[in-house]
Amino acid sequence: MMLNQLSSGDLIADRRAEYAHMLADSGDHMDAADLMTQALELAPGWAAGWFRLADYEEKSGRKEAAISALKKVLTLNPEDMFGAGLKLALLGDSEAPGQPSSLYVAQLFDDYAGRFDKALVEKLDYRVPEKLEALIAEHAGGMRFTDVADLGCGTGLFGERIRARADRLEGFDLSANMLAKAQEKGLYDHLAQADLSLPPETSGLFSGMPEHRADLVSAADVLMYLGRLDSVFVIALQLMGRAGLFAFSVEDAGVEGDFILRPSLRYAHSETYIQGLCKRFGLEIVAVSKTPIRNDGGKPVLGILFLTRKPA
Q1: Residues 1, 81, 85, 269: what is their CA dihedral angle, to the nearest 10 degrees?
Q2: Which residues are 166's β-sheet partners?
Q3: Neighbouring-strand partners of residue 267
Q4: pLDDT by residue (tens digit) across 73-128?
Q5: Are 152 and 196 in contact (CB under 8 A)?
Q6: Are residues 28 and 168 in the same domain?
Q7: Rounded CA gap, 48 and 45, in Å?
Q8: Same structural domain, 176 and 49
Q9: What is the pTM of this model?
């Protein structure tokens, strides 16, 4: 999120904040924090400024000051468009929330949409769409799909892989800008904004459309932006027809328990948690594949791909 583009409304405060940003870029986070504090004395209601201060304080090693600034952010912006609640959890001040703020996720990807494909594919060696499509092809053979519902479709990277096998392809995403990029590709028969953290009746996936219409539901590299996944499984079941498939990926937590929040502000889920969800929602696990799904900081991020089936 380009916080340096969010103005305080006070010219002098903005100028000091810009100097603070320059100091932080040079590695002088302590002086950046001190200058940012001066800016906030002039604009105490500037939520984005407090979030920037929290970042500088954290990088200066002043954890308690960072926590205090993040709590100020939440007071000023309870909808949490900045993800302050996630940062507080990483700093040990609170438990990781079961779901991040939908406004935060939408803002994150609205900002990212213009450079999403290039950043993921060329810089991060992102390979979930082709690996997930290969898993489907291996276990569903040459099956052609009457209706594919692509949850968290983003710019359409998985849509590019599955389009040739789908009579009808639907895409759903929380970010309006990502949907606009998907629309430009001309892959989807239907695109709509939807929030996977909400129950099906309010998620946006069934507005004017029949339930149980899809023979394949996909969620490629989207579940790591959710903690608890109950709502996604409920949505998938209501989208899937008899014997329909649900193919999805998660980051591999590699530990016991349900999920963890990582410093990347993404969630990782355990294989046992996913297995438990499949059992609870009556889904048969057809195939599981553990594989690197992208690079982060020059190191591979391990993920788990699942292909499940709804009983006929």
Answers
A1: -70
A2: 145
A3: 261
A4: 999 999 999 999 999 999 999 999 998 999 999 999 988 777 776 777 667 778 89
A5: yes
A6: no
A7: 9
A8: no
A9: 0.90
